[in-house]
């Protein structure tokens, strides 16, 4: 380290690192358009296998459809804003980089912190779903779940650490397989579907809860507009984590050309898949919307209804592909997100050291995995195996979505600020939705957050997130802001007079 530079307007100090610092933190370039597409789609695809369907319990079929459309509008505004910012600021920092340039070091750090919660916790959520499937398929006692968590983390840490090319090839392969499973389900379900009888088999009972209609043909919106709005948080699962794609900017061969294409292809793929699964899964005879209000394995239930119980093990393994795809790709994002904040000094700098041979941020990935596992184990042992196992998914899910919603709001604000204050920076791609699209993203994200707080499990998750925020902000205020490094993100921001 050499000369110290200070940003007086924001109370931070910089150290200019020498070449050896960045030599120890090098990344390799590999990703093209289809690698980026698979990274974005793979991160989300598990949400089309399970989780989204719980929204039927608040809004019925019509409520889920309209909530999905509203959330789709939010993600279109977000992804097209990101598609503009990412090639203009092609750094691994992604959300942190956008906010750092637009709002200074504190804005960048808080945005990065929101995203950090999402990417450290989301793999933990997904591995709980994976474990539930594995336990059911292999007949493993749920008491052994922590061991299964560790095994899956170890396997996919290895895939992500030992070679960027291997990791991207596996990501592409498992994403294509996951989509093939969904397409196979659509083809199987279309000849069977009976929309009116099964998808519309719920209505509002006298006590205000949904009841099953044995003959179907109920109302599209059994809970009215309030039910539509209450369903927004569940519809998020159909698109959550597509925004991670810009974290691969420095590992992309041509980010200025390929990043917008990868993001746009990804969101269009997910829009088609989301519509098909919301339409077809509840329309299969023997499944129906009422059953799916509480189902943990909606796609597997659909396959069972079509093909019977004979191939449950095979079908269970098939249904695992989407969960595996998302687990693998979000672990990739977790590593890059921690790496970028560490390389710039916001987090301790040792976390950004990359593997000497494979040039992957192995320390960041291992650290993120340890934190995710530690949170899971803390809940598991604090509440006991039985109770902890039943609430761990919902608590972690709310933690992840809470961080994600705030990250979306801050990224949309960053887009607006950059459009206003830096109109002259090179923008290889411009969002056709512009500032109105970013404003819609903010409005919908705020409404979604408001309805999330109605979930009693939400409070537990938020409490843990607030503790996480307090510890990280305390570290940055006391230590981190005096040790910032002139990383690519910081140099770009300073050269454009922000901070």
From TrEMBL:
Localization: Cell membrane
Q: How does it sit in the membrane?
A: Multi-pass membrane protein
The protein's matches in InterPro entries, at most eight in alphabetical order, are given as:
AA/rel_permease1 (IPR002293), APC_superfamily (IPR050367)
Its primary localisation, in coarse terms, equals membrane
User: Membrane-crossing residues?
Assistant: 30-49, 61-83, 146-163, 170-190, 220-242, 263-280, 306-333, 363-383, 395-418, 430-450, 462-479
A GO CC annotation recorded here is: plasma membrane
Which UniProt keyword terms apply here?
A: Cell membrane, Membrane, Transmembrane, Transmembrane helix
What are the GO MF terms of this UniProt record? transmembrane transporter activity
What is the protein name stated in its UniProt record? Amino acid ABC transporter permease
Q: Which residues form a coiled coil?
A: none
Q: Does the keyword Membrane apply?
A: yes
């Amino acid at each position: 380290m050499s000369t110290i530079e200070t940003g007086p307007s924001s109370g931070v100090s910089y150290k200019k690192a020498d070449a050896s610092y960045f030599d120890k933190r090098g990344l390799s370039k590999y990703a093209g358009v289809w690698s980026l597409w698979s990274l974005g789609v793979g991160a989300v695809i598990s949400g089309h296998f399970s989780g989204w369907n719980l929204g039927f319990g608040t809004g019925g079929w019509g409520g889920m459809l309209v909530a999905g459309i509203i959330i789709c509008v939010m993600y279109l505004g977000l992804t097209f804003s990101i598609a503009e910012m990412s090639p203009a600021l092609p750094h691994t920092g992604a959300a942190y980089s956008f906010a750092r340039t637009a709002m200074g070091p504190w804005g960048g750090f808080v945005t990065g912190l929101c995203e950090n919660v999402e990417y450290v916790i989301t793999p933990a959520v997904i591995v709980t779903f994976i474990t539930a499937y594995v336990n059911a398929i292999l007949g493993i006692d749920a008491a052994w779940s922590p061991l299964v968590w560790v095994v899956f983390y170890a396997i996919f840490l290895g895939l992500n650490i030992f070679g960027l090319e291997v990791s991207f090839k596996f990501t592409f392969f498992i994403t294509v397989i996951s989509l093939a499973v969904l397409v196979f389900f659509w083809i199987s379900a279309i000849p069977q579907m009976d929309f009116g009888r099964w998808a519309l088999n719920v209505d509002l009972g006298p006590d205000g809860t949904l009841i099953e209609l044995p003959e179907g043909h109920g109302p599209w919106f059994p809970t009215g507009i309030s039910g539509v709005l209450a369903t927004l948080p569940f519809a998020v699962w159909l698109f959550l984590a597509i925004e991670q794609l810009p974290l691969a900017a420095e590992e992309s061969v041509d980010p200025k050309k390929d990043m917008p294409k990868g993001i746009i292809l990804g969101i269009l793929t997910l829009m088609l898949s989301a519509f098909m699964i919301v339409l077809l899964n509840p329309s299969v005879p023997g499944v129906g919307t009422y059953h799916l209000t509480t189902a943990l394995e909606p796609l597997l239930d659909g396959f069972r209804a079509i093909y019977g119980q004979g191939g449950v093990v095979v079908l269970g393994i098939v249904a695992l592909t989407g969960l595996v795809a998302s687990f693998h790709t979000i672990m990739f994002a977790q590593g890059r997100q921690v790496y970028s904040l560490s390389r710039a000094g916001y987090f301790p700098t040792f976390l950004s050291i990359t593997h000497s041979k494979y040039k992957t941020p192995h320390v960041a990935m291992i650290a993120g995995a340890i934190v995710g596992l530690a949170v899971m184990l803390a809940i598991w042992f604090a509440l006991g195996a039985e109770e902890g196992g039943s609430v761990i998914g919902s608590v972690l899910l709310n933690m992840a979505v809470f961080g994600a919603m705030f990250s979306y709001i801050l990224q949309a604000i960053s887009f607006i600020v950059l459009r206003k204050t830096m109109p002259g920076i090179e923008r290889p791609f411009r969002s056709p939705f512009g500032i109105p699209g970013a404003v819609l993203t903010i409005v919908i994200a705020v409404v979604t957050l408001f309805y999330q707080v109605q979930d009693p499990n939400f409070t537990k998750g938020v409490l843990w997130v607030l503790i996480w925020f307090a510890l990280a902000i305390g570290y940055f205020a006391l230590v981190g802001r005096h040790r910032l490094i002139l990383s690519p993100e910081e140099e770009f921001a300073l050269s454009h007079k922000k901070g």
